[in-house]
UniProtKB/TrEMBL annotation:
The keyword Nucleotidyltransferase does not apply. Residues 49-269 form the Radical SAM core domain. This is Radical SAM domain protein. PANTHER family: 3-METHYLORNITHINE SYNTHASE (PTHR43726), BIOTIN SYNTHASE (PTHR43726:SF1). GO terms for molecular function: 4 iron, 4 sulfur cluster binding; metal ion binding; transferase activity. GO terms for biological process: sulfur compound biosynthetic process; water-soluble vitamin biosynthetic process. SUPFAM superfamilies: Radical SAM enzymes (SSF102114).
Length: 350
């Protein structure tokens, strides 16, 4: 099949073989524009022109894991660590809802300081006091904990699989396994969360073949949300001598993901915006329909340093809200005013 035929098939059937995905990942020039346009058409047809905003509260930068690319890894002693108290987290959530956010994302490193009850308390308090959806992004925990938090009112859970290559996964994540990661994604699905995963683009030894497996895994896991971005090299990690991931490869991956998962929520991520000032805008024109601005307040923003030169660390949540609003409007799109749940959930599917 030539490129036009592959795109036609993808737009009609939302299914491709691994070989066809690899071919799309290798497109350049005029063909690449066609790929982005096809993804934009599918986004417009299935998700409309609404762009949903999710306000991220980065409540702790402690992490017990040691992922080789990440600045929060436990062996990075150069990072000043912080933890927000439950009351502070709830108060930041309240301020985010006052800015119009209808989803707060509670994000941290893997930090056991926040036990089952504490996280449950935060969820209940937010749900009692304000009208917002809650997304958790706090890593690998036990089934029972996920269950308690779901019952307390958490709506969604994000946990990237990072790479679908088990060997590469193992090399980059000491003490962790891809199998365990995927098991958690299945648990979360079973518990009725809207589930998001995603990968990193530009990991060592990762090629188009490997990324095609990531995309097929998104499809197999039947995700509600897919968030992905380029690797941004952090000088305080073992990957310090490596190079940044390619923005273009991340955009291609977003576009193909949109073709295959037409109803997924896909963000233009902060990492894309950090490597390319137009990165998030480009993503929104290549299949993405979500942006996740930072709503953390005070001195903490620069300390959640997954990678250097992260955008918006010196801004206030008010500035980001306004900035992102104008970006969305200038693209001829509209900011979502409802929760922006998965359209599949709204239709009563899982
Ligand atoms: N560059 C880009 N993304 C990173 N993440 C962690 N470290 C980096 C980095 N150096 C991503 C991981 C993780 C998410 C919270 O941040 O994919 O899942
Ligand atoms: Fe911790 Fe997540 Fe960073 Fe890994 S990627 S070190 S789990 S914060
Ligand atoms: Fe933070 Fe633009 S989104 S300044």
């Amino acid at each position: 099949m030539n490129l036009d035929e592959i795109l036609l098939k993808a737009e009609r059937e939302h299914a491709l073989t691994r070989g066809e995905i690899v071919k799309l990942l290798k497109t350049r020039g005029e063909d690449l524009k066609k790929l982005y346009k096809a993804a934009d058409r599918v986004r417009s047809k299935y998700m409309g022109d609404t762009v949903y905003l999710r306000g991220i509260i980065e409540f702790s930068n402690y992490c017990k894991q040691n992922c080789k690319y990440c600045g929060l890894r436990r062996d990075n002693h150069r990072l000043e660590r912080y933890r927000l108290q439950p009351e502070e987290i709830v108060s930041m959530a309240e301020k985010a809802t006052k800015l119009g956010y209808k989803t707060v994302v509670l994000q941290s490193g893997e930090d056991d300081y926040y036990d089952t009850d504490m996280v449950e308390w935060i969820i209940r308090e937010i749900k009692n006091r304000m009208d917002t959806a809650i997304t958790l992004c706090i890593g690998e925990r036990e089934y029972e904990e996920y269950k308690v938090w779901r019952e307390a009112g958490a709506d969604r859970y994000l946990i990237r699989h990072e790479t679908a290559d088990p060997g590469l996964y193992h090399r980059l994540h000491p003490g962790m396994s891809l199998e365990q990661r995927i098991e958690r994604l299945r648990w979360l699905k079973e518990l009725g969360y809207q589930v998001g995963s995603g990968n990193l683009i530009g990991l060592p030894d990762q090629d188009e073949e490997s990324i095609s497996r990531d995309i097929l895994l998104f499809k197999e896991l039947d995700l509600h949300m897919v968030g992905l971005g380029p690797l941004v090299v952090n000088p305080d990690t073992p990957l310090k001598d490596y190079h940044n991931g390619s923005v273009e490869m991340a955009l291609k991956t977003i576009a193909i993901t949109r073709l295959l998962l037409p109803l997924a929520h896909i963000p233009g991520t902060t990492a894309l915006g950090s490597l390319d000032p137009e990165g998030r805008q480009k993503a929104l024109k290549a299949g993405a329909n979500v942006v996740m601005p930072n709503v953390t307040r005070g001195k903490y923003r620069p300390l959640y340093e997954l990678y250097p030169a992260k955008i918006c660390v010196d801004e206030e949540p008010e500035n980001c809200r306004q900035c992102i609003g104008s970006i969305i409007t200038s693209l001829g799109r509209v900011v979502g005013t409802d929760y922006g749940h998965s359209p599949r959930i709204e239709k009563g599917e899982v």
